Amino acid sequence: MKIAAALCVAALVVIGAGLVVFWPSPAYVWQLPGGVPPPKVPDDNPMTALKVELGRRLFHDVRLSAGDNLACAGCHVQALAFTDGRPQAIGATEEAHPRGTMSLVNVAYASRLNWANHLQDRLEIQALTPLFGENPVEMGADQQRVLELLQSDAEYQRLFPLAFSADADPYSMLNVLRSLASFTRSIVSFESPYDRYLRGDTSALNESQLRGMALFFSERVECFHCHGGFNFTDSSTHANAVVDNVGFHNTGLYNIGGNGDYPEDNTGIYDLTGNRQDMGRFKAPTLRNIAVTAPYMHDGSIATLDEVLDHYARGGRDNVGGPFAGDGRHNPYRSEFVQGFELSDAEREDLLAFLRSLTDDSVLTDQRFSSPFVN
Amino acid sequence: MNPAYRFASVLLFGALTSCGARQSDVEISFVATNADQLLQCDDASTSALLGDLRFFVQDLFLIDANGKSVALQLAPDGQWQDQNVALIDLEDGRGTCQNGTAAVNSLIKGHAPSADYRGLQFTLGVPGYLNHGDPLLAEAPLTDAAMHWHWRSGYKFLRAALQRDGQRMRLHLGSARCHGVIGKLQGCDEGNRPTVVLHSFNFERDVVAFDFAALLANVEQGSAAVQVCEMGPDEELCTALRPALGLNEDGQSIAPSAVFRAMRAP
């Protein structure tokens, strides 16, 4: 009898210990309005609230950078929809990047990441570039230093074992990347006036914005061809998608020497494919929050939305003089959807009003995405 | 001892010794040179200044007296080599290698059947099935962030940098024009894996020299101050380096690379 009782207690202890170690985290709850599918999440990095919280901390931690001076949040500034207001990003060692910081709002739905990389589809892997990239140096992170940080910081010592409870040693670069990806994946929001209008709030858009919306989706202006779908980009996917949409487009910004060339450091996906047809092809970024993410284009070479409309109305930019001289309108690789159009002054105002209606103030201020560091 | 038992043990002993050929431990040593001059990161007295030299080696063979290639089995060590690929790291982060790491590895260790070997053959690169895999799940020696090409995908098979006559050059060699997505590549149109054949190489007496002078044989002096080849489509330095690497424009190995040569151990 005593043996049976002891065995019973032992079994309960084992089962109990097993539950403590392997009890699954409660399923992550996406805060999405009805009708919006959740984003795709990789099987090997399921969403949990703990990972997201850990990722938030890492995202705002300057100690990941070479000089302890630049967190992810340093370029991905929440108030600017996680961009930085610069034409080209500047790294921890003051090196300029050829391209501008991209917004992270709804990045969970991006089928491809970065301005010009058709091979990059996972947040977990993408983060390696800003962390460890050398040309240019972005954050200039050092793998060893990062691991030492995790071992020496009390909060990370507390959070890593909680977030990665099944790992014998949770303090790994892989888990840093998984946490960061979970956090950026969690930045989803559909609360702009446009979204509320779609959900039945007929007062959310005024007459001018409604006219602008009609222009946006018209065959004359054709914005929707590249900036369409629920995220205003054709490089978009979600959990229920059977096929990922992926798009890279040459909009006629440059045409150096008249043979289609873009500046050497910004040739789009041509740099990776070596295929001339890919010269100047860049991803069409999301237009959500576009009013707060100036300046525009991959190199920030267009300062205002008004000038963006000039560019598309003309069907390409005429670069006069200087090393990049050439009329982009005649770029042989220019997208078939960029043909130019007529736009009256009143229509221009309506279209701009509509674009401004894509600003979601809630995500720009939501404390869930803000810095947990007190100073 | 029981005669039957003795007979059985002799038979067993005979069987065991004839089962496998004797194996020899083999160590292949690598050095960086500019022609005949050894290069070190913290030695500013040489004609050229080493900036970086790290590369992966796969498919090693020793060439025997009959010209037959015999596979060199790599000894996994959990850091610099597994059974498929080895990482040589000849920069120590000091002096002119300021963006490198302190860790160094100049040796490849393995074993091969004991024989009279006259030569060495190997490929510079990471085997395709490893190159195309998920970098986050990779194991040593593929865990170094500096050797992974998180932009172009796959690994940097070779990282080399040198300062010479007021000019700086940098080479990152890896597969290019890849398809699929990083972590799950379907293939790359340009392999860019140079092969090396050293017909006269005695691993007990010689070392393998990576010769920058041979690498840069085709590069014009007095051209641009900074030259970069990172597998981009229009990089002039890449065109100048391909003959020395034995690669054609499609990234195929069409001749053994002249960059590596046998050298008496210093």
Anisotropy-based shape of chain A:
globular
CA-CA gap between termini of chain B: 55 Å
Rounded to the nearest angstrom, the distance between the terminal CA atoms of chain A is 62 Å
Q: Which blocks of ≥5 consecutive residues of chain A have pLDDT under 50?
A: none
Sequence stretches where pLDDT stays below 50 over 5 or more residues of chain B: none
* Helical coverage of chain B, percent range: 10-25%
Tell me the helix content of chain A. 25-40%
What percentage of amino acids of chain A are in beta strands? under 5%
Read across the widest sheet of chain A, the strand sequence of neighbours is 1-2
The whole-number mean of residue pLDDT values of chain B reads 92
Number of helices of chain B: 4
Shape of chain B: globular
Helix/strand structural class of chain B: mainly beta
> Which sheet architecture does the biggest sheet of chain B show?
8 strands, mixed
The helix-and-strand class of chain A reads mainly alpha
Total DSSP E strands of chain A: 4
Rg of chain B computed from alpha carbons, rounded to a whole number of angstroms: 21 Å
- Our estimate of the beta-strand percent of chain B is 35-45%
H/E element string of chain B?
Answer: HEEEEEEEEHEEEEEEHEHE
Give the C-alpha Rg of chain A. 24 Å
Would you write up a description of this structure?
- The complex is a heterodimer of chains A (375) and B (266).
- Chain A has 375 residues and is mostly helical.
- Chain A has helices at 2-22, 49-59, 72-75, 123-126, 128-132, 143-152, 154-163, 173-185, 193-198, 207-216, 270-273, 305-314, 345-356, 361-365, and strands at residues 248-249, 282-283, 318-319, 326-327.
- In chain A, 33% of the residues lie in helices and 2% in strands.
- In chain A, helix 2 (49-59) packs antiparallel against helix 7 (154-163) and helix 10 packs across helix 13.
- The longest helix of chain A is centred in the first third of the chain and has 21 residues, at 2-22.
- In chain A, 45% of the residues are buried.
- Chain B has 266 residues and is mainly beta.
- Helix content of chain B is 13%, strand content 38%.
- Chain B is globular, with a radius of gyration of 21 Å.
- At the A-B interface, helix 4, helix 5, helix 8 and helix 11 of A face strand 11 of B.
